[in-house]
Amino acid sequence: MTQRMREPTYFLLTALLDEPLHGYAIIGRAAELSGGRVRLATGTLYAALDRLTAEGFIEVVRTEIVNGRARRYYALTRDGGTALRAEAQIMAGAARLVLRFAGGVA
Amino acid sequence: MTQRMREPTYFLLTALLDEPLHGYAIIGRAAELSGGRVRLATGTLYAALDRLTAEGFIEVVRTEIVNGRARRYYALTRDGGTALRAEAQIMAGAARLVLRFAGGVA
DNA sequence: TTACATACGTAGATCATCGACATATGGTGG
DNA sequence: CCACCATATGTCGATGATCTACGTATGTAA
Fold it and tell me: Is the Cβ–Cβ distance between A58 and A80 less than 8 Å?
């Protein structure tokens, strides 16, 4: 009962902080924000979009039809923003626990 | 290929920052450090101890026999400490990404 | 015409974690 | 005396997010 958000999920939500994005654009934004470290796999992305929508953390705010295929734009909901900030604070606290010791960089 | 350390693993290693501890004591120390939030399940703990030992992140530094049962004390290795600090810095960076926006507490 | 970026999606496998169980001792409360 | 909890180690099956690899389609650059 310790389980929380995993990194791909965290960065997916973080990617939506500025503005609504469609699925594939989220991959690029997450990579950008993480300095290239987080590369969301499409299998992770589309599964997570469905899951987070069902959880009420994100929602579809616009749908375009491009080449006969739906392009959905997702936005953070209020709950999603709250959960993300809570998660960030837990992470900051956990990081502090380790870093206050040796300030030594890895 | 984004996968990193999960929270129980992170707190298991953090619990060993001060001094070597035996398995069960790690549960208490992790709970203490996290303000009661992280409650390591024994299934998680003993599996993780084996895994992290195999990975070279922790090692057995002392063994006592209590009531005919081995009590093993684990310590962080150099690699384990390095990995933990690296993880902490990634977490701090990720947290900053979200918290620099609304300083608003969750 | 081959290949890559864009863009959506599915399917099977992996693996850390979880909940429940098993076992044993020592202490405390009813 | 007996139930329960803390201490302590450990196993087993299930869960669930993520990963790799595949499939489809268009536009564009080499």
Answer: yes
